[in-house]
Amino acid sequence: MTMRKLAPILLILAASVAVTSTVATARTSTAKSTTRTVKVGDDYFVGDGKARTVTVKRNTRVRWKWAGNSAHDVTVRKGPVKFRSPVKSSGTYSRKMTRIGTYRIYCSIHGAAAQSMTLKVVR
């Protein structure tokens, strides 16, 4: 075969390798991202009567999911980064945890004594 006849075949082969590589990269990056769901119930985080400390690895997305009937928020009282969710009575709020450290979180409506949790972000 001459180089002129071989050129289109090589072009198609190169394009298919590029597409396969892109798809594999997209799958790998999706597989690495993880999400941890924390329940927001009436006057508790995590679960009624359960331990209120959650530990996740850095770059994990934490998703708070409202399960009760009352309005609550997610507010960082102390931690490497402070954030606050909107006041909600249903739905979710999520945040990617990029800073390592311990976060003291509470519902500003009900106070730290009634509704609080600790979120530990580790390597």
Helix content: 10-25%
CATH class of the largest domain: Mainly Beta
The name of the CATH superfamily of the largest domain reads: Cupredoxins -  blue copper proteins
Could you state the order of secondary-structure elements as H and E? HEEEEEEEE
CATH topology name of the largest domain: Immunoglobulin-like
Examine the secondary-structure arrangement and name the CATH architecture of the largest domain: Sandwich
Poorly predicted runs are: 19-30
Q: Care to describe what's here?
A:
The structure is a single chain. The model is unreliable at 19-30 (pLDDT under 50). By secondary structure, the chain is an alpha/beta fold. The strands form two sheets. Strands 2-1-4-6 form a four-stranded mixed β-sheet, with no helix packed on it. Strands 3-8-7-5 form a four-stranded mixed β-sheet, with no helix packed on it. The longest helix is centred in the first third of the chain and has 30 residues, at 3-32. The radius of gyration is 23 Å and the shape is elongated. It has one helix spanning 3-32, and strands at 35-41, 44-45, 53-57, 60-66, 75-78, 92-97, 101-106, 116-122. 24% of the residues lie in helices and 36% in strands.
Strand-helix topology:
Layout: H1 3-32, E1 35-41, E2 44-45, E3 53-57, E4 60-66, E5 75-78, E6 92-97, E7 101-106, E8 116-122
Parallel strand pairs: 1-4, 3-8
Antiparallel strand pairs: 1-2, 4-6, 5-7, 7-8
Features:
single chain; alpha/beta; 1 helix
Short description:
Helix content is 24%, strand content 36%. By secondary structure, it is an alpha/beta fold. The chain starts with a helix and ends with a strand.
